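Students often ask what a holo structure prediction actually looks like on paper. The answer is less mysterious than it sounds. You provide the chain, you provide the ligand, and the output is a string of discrete structure tokens encoding the 3D arrangement of the protein together with nicotinamide-adenine-dinucleotide.
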Amino acid sequence: MSNSKQIEICENDHVFVLTGAGVSAESGLATFRGAGGLWEGERVEDVASPGGWKRDPERVWRFYSMRRKAALLAEPNPAHAALAKLEHKLGERYFLCTQNVDDLHERAGSRNLVHMHGELFQSCCDSCTREPFTDKRIFCQTKAEQLRCECGGHIRPNIVWFGEVPFHMDRIIEELHRCTVMLVVGTSGVVQPAASFVHWANERYTGGSAVVRTYYVGPEHPANAEAFTRVFQGKAGEVLPHLFAVL
Ligand code: NAD
Ligand code: ZN
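The corresponding structure tokens follow.
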């Protein structure tokens, strides 16, 4: 049985899920903005921009090492589990795009997902095209000079910084064109292009009736709240486990 507190998913629906830092908040990982946020004491341009990397790579590595440490200690929460369960039920009709760089969705059992802003436990070279590689090392005192690629370039976190192009955009756009339900969880709706996904979905109208139902879940209204069919206000870990009625 479904009720008004649930999202009904019918047999022809394709579900596109976008998650942000809020989905990992109940796992103890800090979100970016606000009190206690990751940006407190750090300027975005110092730790999450190509310019910051050029100026002070050791500082950048300290920041991402701190985040690697925190993510290694964190466990998936009921929100990650509810999404993995939904994927299990829907199979190919489910797609997850996360802005998060932690691996909590995978550890909860999600498989059909992309990390549009990169992955915390991968590194790459800042100069050559070698494939990104798995890297769980924590560098707190390491001199950037020690982290050299064979090509002479420097090894950097495989993270999409401000001013860089998000990963997997072709796949994301394909899935945006396929979806009939969009669920956005725990993101403030200010970082582009993710903040526009709901608008792109809303533009898919046929004869005046929207084909895509769009929902947001989080304790606060995001900056783009008015674009959603409905906002479910609450913590992801409390709302998501009871949110879906798969018909
Ligand atoms: P954010 O910190 O801007 O917003 C977090 C959102 O989560 C807020 O809207 C908050 O209300 C919500 N929230 C808090 N607790 C919640 C809970 N229990 N359940 C559900 N929602 C909860 O983070 P964001 O919107 O994800 O930021 C956008 C993206 O920008 C980030 O994912 C990140 O990839 C990117 N970014 C990256 C860097 C970097 O280090 N490279 C820096 C800044 C932003
Ligand atoms: Zn290289």
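The chain has two domains: 7-29+76-117+167-246, 44-73+123-159.
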